[in-house]
Amino acid sequence: MKTILITGATSGIGKSTAELFAKQGNRVIICGRRSEVLESVKTELSAFTEVFSLQFDVSNLEQVENAINSLPAEWKNIDVLINNAGNAHGLDPLSAGKTDDWDSMIDGNVKGVLYVAKMIIPGMKERNSGHIVNLSSVAARQTYINGVVYCATKKAVDVISEGMRLELTEFGIRVTNIQPGAVETDFSLVRFKGDNERASTVYAGYEPLKAEDIADAIAYCVNAPKHVNVSDMTIYPSAQSEPRTIYRK
Description:
Elements (H helix, E strand, L loop, with lengths): L2 E4 L5 H12 L3 E6 L2 H11 L5 E5 L5 H9 L10 E4 L15 H29 L2 E6 L12 H21 L4 E8 L6 H5 L4 H6 L9 H13 L8 E4 L4 E3 L2 E2 L3
Parallel strand pairs: 1-2, 1-4, 2-3, 4-5, 5-6, 6-7
Antiparallel strand pairs: 8-9
Helix pairs in contact: 1-8, 3-4, 4-5
Family: Belongs to the short-chain dehydrogenases/reductases (SDR) family.
Organism: Chryseobacterium paridis
Keywords: Oxidoreductase
């Protein structure tokens, strides 16, 4: 049984990953910004395992520090960190981009990964054991038009994962970088600021990945034998050949 901390655990990939690990008998620490949703997920998962919830915004260092420092002693030894929280805002050319959207993506997708990892890594190093899984994107592999800042943040996650692996392998800590392709979650709804009609077109005419597909991949990496480290994994739906190309019926 592992103690697993998952950011962005109230929906999408994060929630599916928390559900899967809970059903496998692991203890899970679910993290998110919305207290009422956190409590709902906690109640749901408590049918399978021990669950602890932490409310904070990964982009706010003070909130990250206060939340993780508040963990009771019996929850502090975190075996696995899943850096899942992140966001996409807007799909505009740089000349028309909104700087608030840029800040939100950079703060959540890059700083958030760093802030949470900084709090967890020292304990893993002391125990000479641990596993960090960072959620990147196929957007890191190929920049696409009007998505420059989002793509840049996910490229940063790739670099952070590589840097973590260079620094932490000697301490027995595994690092995995996951690059999902098109996954049908609230991702596009957030990107298009609640425009359901526009968001729905992203997943029309083909079968996209589901959040559960990525959760399965994360679990495979975490549950691999200790001498095995899946360093990088790219996952596309069958209809997607590269980040910009999806074959629709």
